[in-house]
């Protein structure tokens, strides 16, 4: 009943979409979903992922490169607290494994590894991290660092860098077996694109 036309979430599923799917760049703003119940939020994110994968299948035929960016990815994994989040996590993991064969790429970002590597979804989160071609690790807290140590071959020096020494803009780049500490700063054209004052940001 909640998802029917006159239900609480009828505006999500009871009508045709108004998204311009022909645009070169399609952004799904999920801000308002954050106030929804966990299973509703995850189900809607899963619907978005299903559409994205359908576009990947098309790009395999057209040979038009498709780049998928998932920010705050832990929201999809949902801490493995319900069946829908487990299915959605498995779906993201499937996309990550196969998208390169479909003329595409995936960038996944999260600030909460504890949700991405929670018990119910750990195998998907771990696979997502360890099988990525390039990994960028910014400064993190002790809880997330402990989780990283369980799946990554970090030396004590690297652990110290990620755990406390990294400043804004510092990160560890991992590419295969190679690791390098790098610093990232916003370029002027990027500052202009975001239309905000990032002069002091990295």
Can you walk me through this structure?
The longest helix has 25 residues. 44% of the residues lie in helices and 13% in strands. It contains 9 helices and 5 strands. The strands form 2 sheets. Strands 3-4-5 form a 3-stranded antiparallel beta sheet, with no helix packed on it. With 202 residues, it is of the alpha+beta class. Strand 4 and strand 5 form a beta hairpin. It starts with 9 loop residues before the first helix and ends in an 8-residue tail after the last helix. The chain is globular and about 55 Å long. Helix 2 runs parallel beside helix 4 and helix 4 runs parallel beside helix 6.
Give the quaternary arrangement of the chains: single chain
Based on Cα principal axes, name the global outline: globular
SSE pattern, N- to C-terminal: HHEHHEHHEHHEEH
- Quickly give the structural class: alpha+beta
Radius of gyration: 19 Å
Strand content: 5-15%
Distance between the termini: 47 Å
Query: What characterizes the major β-sheet?
Result: 3 strands, antiparallel
Poorly predicted runs of 5 or more residues: none
Number of helices: 9
Mean residue pLDDT:
82
Strand order of the largest sheet: 3-4-5
| Helix content range | 40-55%
Strand tally: 5
């Amino acid at each position: 009943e909640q998802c029917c036309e006159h239900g609480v979430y009828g505006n999500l599923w009871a009508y045709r979409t108004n998204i311009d799917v022909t645009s070169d760049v399609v952004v799904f703003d999920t801000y308002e979903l954050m106030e929804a119940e966990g299973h509703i939020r995850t189900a809607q994110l899963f619907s978005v992922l299903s559409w994205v994968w359908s576009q990947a299948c098309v790009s395999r035929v057209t040979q038009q490169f498709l780049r998928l960016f998932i920010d705050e990815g832990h929201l999809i994994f949902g801490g493995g607290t319900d069946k829908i989040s487990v299915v959605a996590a498995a779906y993201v993991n499937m996309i990550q494994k196969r998208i390169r064969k479909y003329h595409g790429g995936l960038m996944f970002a999260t600030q909460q590894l504890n949700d991405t590597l929670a018990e119910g979804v750990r195998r998907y989160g771990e696979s997502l991290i360890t099988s990525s071609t390039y990994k960028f690790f910014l400064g993190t807290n002790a809880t997330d660092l402990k989780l990283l140590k369980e799946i990554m071959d970090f030396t004590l020096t690297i652990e110290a860098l990620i755990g406390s020494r990294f400043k804004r803009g510092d990160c560890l780049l991992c590419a295969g077996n190679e690791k390098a500490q790098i610093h990232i700063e916003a370029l002027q054209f990027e500052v202009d694109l975001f239309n905000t004052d990032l002069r002091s940001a990295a």
